[in-house]
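Data deposition worksheet. Section B asks for the primary sequence of the deposited chain exactly as it was used as input, without tags or linkers unless they were present during the calculation. Section C holds the resulting structure in token form. Section D is free text for depositor observations; keep each observation to a single sentence. Incomplete worksheets are returned to the depositor.
Section A, Depositor: J.P.
Section B:
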Amino acid sequence: MIQHLKSLHLPVTVVTNRSFLHTFDIKILKENIDSLCVSVDSIHKDLYCKIKRHPTEQYHRVMDNLHAVAEHKMNRYINAVITK
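Section C:
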């Protein structure tokens, strides 16, 4: 779908929480999107796991995915919801 939208010369932004980003070929993703919006609940492991109710392994996968995006120098921005 992303490649099709790009072929139509439409701006393409992907919004993700990064948990499944490792399942995509980042090189192909980079070639076909204009920006990547990363939704972040917390960068702190304990708080992330509490908010998301995920095991520690999920937190590490998400952080690894974020580092992979940074290494590929993708056009990205961060989305964060601040709650009390």
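Section D:
Strands lie at 13-16, 35-39, 76-79.
The helical segments are 2-7, 26-32, 45-52, 56-71.
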